[in-house]
Each structure stands twice: as C-alpha cells, then as structure tokens.
Design a protein that fits this description.
Shape: globular
Distance between the termini: 58 Å
Strand content: 25-35%
Radius of gyration: 24 Å
Structural class: alpha+beta
Strand order of the largest sheet: 16-25-21-17-20-19-18
Largest sheet: 7 strands, mixed
Number of strands: 25
Number of domains: 2
Number of helices: 6
Length: 435
C-alpha cells in the first residue's frame, strides 16, 4: 500500500480533479454557463494563457473596449461630389480588475494515510467537486446581481432570530444556506450577523417574507444567538459586501449592466447617455405577464441600436412559466424546446418576423419579476484560468493552520465580466409571476 504522505502521490490526482472542475463547473449554473460557453469552443472564458501579447491583462487588470454607437458619417455623394470625412469611432477603452472568489473546504489527515484506491480518495473527489459546484453557484449569483452582494432588504428592527425582508429571491434564500446580515450603508456587522444559517422561511409574496435564522454558529468567524438588525440592514453573500465603483470586490453583474444611472465599468451614464441598456417595455412600469406582444416590442426596441439577434431571453422562471401557460389555452401548444450546450432546456421563441429564433431560459437566480435579452457577442468573461484552481502559492494544495489534524484547501477563481454595447442588452422589468 502506497503511503500518500508522499505529496507526489496526491498531486497528480488533485491536478486531474482540478481539470475536471474546469470542464464541468460552468455547467452547474445557468447564466455562468451562458457567459462561459461551457462545452462550446466558440465561447470560452478569455484567460491570461490566451493573451500571448499581454495586451488584455496586466496583473489583475483587464483592458476592454466598449462600443457606444454604430459607425456614422456615411453618405451618398453625387457623381462629381466628395464623400464625407470619417467621424471618430465612438468607443472607449476601459479597465477593470479580476475579482477573487475563494471557496475553502476541510479534510482530515487520514487522506494522507491511505492509498489512492481507498475510500478517502473518493471523499476528496466529492469534496473537490462540491467546492467546484459551490464556486459555480456563488459566481452565478454574483453575475445575476448588482455588484453589492445584497440579496434582500430587512424591514424590521429587533434583536432576534427572525427578520422580515423584501426584495428576496426565495430560489436563493433557502433553509441551510449561509449569509451575512450587515448594515447596508457600511457593510458593518450590526451584531452577531456574520455567517448565519437560514433555519426556515415563511413566504408572503414572491419577494417578501420572514427568515428565521439558526441560533448556532456555523464557522469560527461566524455569529451565534440573536441577531441585532434594523430596517437599515440587509442579507448579503457571506463575506462579500461591496460598493460598485469603490471597492468592486464582486464581478460586474447583469443588474449593474441594466441599471439606468450611475457609473458602470468606469463610464458615467450621465455624461455618456448611450451607455445604458434598452428598456424593452419603453417606460411601462405596470405589472404585466410576459407575452408575445411584449417580446415583439422588446425586439423592436433592441433593433433601434443594432441588436438584430439574441442568444436567449433569460429571467425569472415564474415569469417565463406564466408566458408558456398563457399560450396553452389559445391553441394546441406543443413547446419547441431547445437544449443549450450547457445542458439547460428552454422553449424556443420564433414569433417575430426577421429575428432568428431564440430560447427562453429560466434562471432561478435572476431577480423576481425580471428578464433580459442579449447577444453573447456583447459580453465577455475573463479569468486567470479556465475555472477555479487550487490555492497553492506555498507549494501545497492542503494546509494546516493549527496543531490539529484537519487540513484546509481552497479553490480560487479570479474572474470578471465585461460588456461591450449596453444598448444591445434589452431588459424587461415588472413581470407578473405564475402561481
């Protein structure tokens, strides 16, 4: 029996696991898979290894060009006339940085005392794959978000284990999951709010309800007992509070891209008004069901800015379900489903003249009552490597922090998403939900 205390026995095994994580992790989540092009050689994460001339990456910094309008100054000169001088291309070079996501997990020293064929090898495989899945889930949550890490706004003030919330996504805030309760303006812990586990939820609407928290600590850096909270507090991704434009710890989320004000990717919307996504409902804020008429209007709005094709309409599953349910009484409806290369299914929309059919994709992590349409060519995902990798700056993939048997390993992913032309991203808000 080989003694796996010799690191050379384990390193090839762990390296192979890392490669498996790279291949599969993006397909664990919907929007992450769409951006990453999992199993799609034409759409891959842009990595530093691809950047042979080092023109895109400089350390953690990314260089990207945003396109603010179609090309101008073309004209029809007469037979003896002169053609127009070219106008400057309305494009801006922007810089952003890769954001670090770290997923720790722990194993015992037993893995170093058994052979590669023993059950502990299977245990390490499972832990590594679960860590890769956790990376995918948390990255997907950030890519669907607004760059702050906020998941729900707390509306009551008390010192208790219950919090009433609004703006919640109950497909995300599930019993057993762990979050931070923080002061929204500063990110400070208001009192025992760190790394708290949801014990149960009581849902009163698609975005509101009550969260009951477990009283026990979930980690050595977490709180326990009653949580001090107020209407100034919020529920956040654990350890991930950020202020877009200031700290920018989280990657650029699609809710940032579809915001109507502020600075995004270093470009101010107030001074560059064309740096804004397109409202597919043209200002209508009433709550309505997603419909063929609404989608056709959104397509017309997008075409004004050169968005002539879309990869998918992605959004709240309850909104998409209501659209499908609305078709059933009108005709013998047999949905034409398509499978994305990431493995996710969705009904195909082909009801618009002059537009290629595209899929309607349910994304459980997308904010409730919202959807978005986009062409993947307008969105690029960048990273150090093809996916999460072991942190091994000290030469080891497992490390010990104290004089105890358990060891810790970390998967680290440095990633960000950059957008090229926001006007070709069409958003639909205030959508009604299926019951």
């Amino acid at each position: 029996m080989a003694n796996s205390g010799d690191r050379s026995n384990w390193d090839p095994f762990l390296f192979e696991l890392q490669g498996t994580v790279h291949e599969s992790y993006a397909a664990e989540a919907v929007l992450l898979g769409v951006f990453s092009g999992s199993k799609d050689v034409e759409r891959r994460r842009v990595t530093q290894a691809m950047d042979t001339d080092r023109s895109i990456f400089h350390g953690s910094q990314i260089r990207h060009t945003v396109d603010l309008s179609t090309m101008q100054s073309g004209g029809w000169p007469g037979e003896s006339g002169t053609w127009n001088a070219p106008s400057a291309i309305n494009a801006v070079k922007v810089f952003d940085k890769l954001c670090d996501f770290v997923q720790p997990f722990s194993v015992t020293v037993d893995v170093e005392r058994d052979s590669m064929s023993a059950s502990n090898a299977a245990a390490v495989t499972r832990l590594t794959m679960k860590a890769g899945q956790a990376c995918a889930i948390q990255e997907n949550l950030a890519l669907n978000g607004d760059g702050t890490g906020l998941q729900a706004t707390i509306t009551d003030s008390a010192t208790s284990l219950t919090t009433t919330v609004t703006g919640a996504n109950w497909d995300v805030l599930l019993p057993g999951t762990i979050w931070d309760v923080l002061t929204r303006s500063t990110g400070a812990d208001p009192g025992q709010g760190l790394r708290r586990q949801i014990a149960s939820v009581a849902i009163t609407s698609p975005t509101a309800g009550t969260i009951t928290w477990s009283t026990n600590a979930t980690a050595s850096d977490g709180g326990s007992g009653n949580i001090v909270h107020a209407s100034t507090s919020g529920v956040y991704i654990a350890g991930s509070y950020s202020t877009p434009g200031t700290t920018d710890f989280l990657p650029n989320g699609i809710q940032e891209a579809t915001a109507t004000s502020g600075t995004f990717m270093g470009v101010s919307r107030s001074t560059t008004p064309q740096w804004v996504a397109t409202d597919g409902r043209s200002g209508d804020t009433s709550t309505k069901a997603l419909s063929e008429q609404m989608i056709q209007g959104a397509l017309r709005a997008g075409r004004r800015y050169g968005a002539n094709s879309f990869f998918c309409l992605l959004g709240d599953p309850a909104g998409i379900d209501l659209f499908v349910q609305g078709l059933m009484p009108q005709r013998l409806y047999n949905p034409d489903n398509a499978q994305l290369k990431t493995g996710w299914y969705g009904p195909v929309y082909n009801g618009a003249v002059g537009v290629q059919p595209f899929s309607l994709v349910s994304e459980p992590y997308y904010p409730k009552g919202k959807a978005v349409m986009f062409d993947r060519a307008e969105i690029t995902i960048y990273g150090d490597e093809a996916g999460p990798s072991f942190l091994e700056d000290d030469g080891a993939r497992f490390r010990r922090f104290t004089r105890a048997l358990p060891k810790e390993a970390e998967l680290v992913d440095r990633v960000n998403v950059m957008y090229t032309n926001l006007s070709r991203i069409v958003y639909l808000n205030n959508l009604d939900s299926a019951s």
